[in-house]
Amino acid sequence: QVQLVESGGGLVKPGGSLRLSCAASGFTFSDYYMTWIRQAPGKGLEWVSYISTSGSTIYYADSVKGRFTISRDNAKNSLYLQMNSLRAEDTAVYFCANYEGDYWGQGTLVTVSS
Amino acid sequence: EIVLTQSPATLSLSPGERATLSCRASQSVSRYLAWYRQKPGQAPRLLIYDTSNRATGIPARFSGSGSGTDFTLTISSLEPEDFAVYYCHQRSGWPQTFGQGTKVEIK
Question: What is the end-to-end Cα distance of chain A in Å, rounded?
């Protein structure tokens, strides 16, 4: 069955970096546009980033532009989010999902705190 | 950025009642509007995409309607698992955006 499994979350100090991974299985990953979406504790959903099937088209939310980098490795069925210059307001559960929204991972928690 | 405003913030209803949730966009999103249900501690689940299409496995009690800037999610008869938070989501333009959510709670 379809599975998306995020990893790489954790506690990091302000200004630090973290790399999230999302491992896909049960579907042809290379055929799907992918996104990252986050949810701060007790808050709503915030779209973060999008990547096309080949990686040639990428979009970011203004709140992360210039600090986060989305990428993918279709040979490894994996999606990534490199997060630099992290701020307290980046604290959230980060979900990977396909563009259509019918496949979601369980999320990985990122906490930015000193 | 397209702002999505959901109303009401909270809906208090009993099982078996009808729920009507609204989502208004700050500019037209054509028909590229989706609805999700999120239970505590879980990832959101897609209910409706492109305004009115039910996602795979979603029961017929869920229906969506609207176009342009005004959209509605209707749950014809609330089941226990429907007491949750609902989000609308537009993918008409970049950045994609979500509404702030409507919580459907047991009255």
Answer: 40
The string of pLDDT tens digits covering residues B22-52 is 999 999 999 999 999 999 999 999 999 999 9
- Give B22's DSSP letter: E
Tell me if B45 and A44 make a contact (CB, 8 A cut-off).
Answer: no
Cis peptide before B95 (omega within 30 of 0): yes
Q: pLDDT tens across B36-94, in order?
A: 999 999 999 999 999 999 999 999 999 999 999 999 999 999 999 999 999 999 999 89
Searching chain B, which residue's CA lies closest to the CA of residue A39? B43
CA distance B50 to B34: 6
Q: Which of B35, B49, B51, B96 to probe the A interface (max A CBs under 10 A)?
A: B96
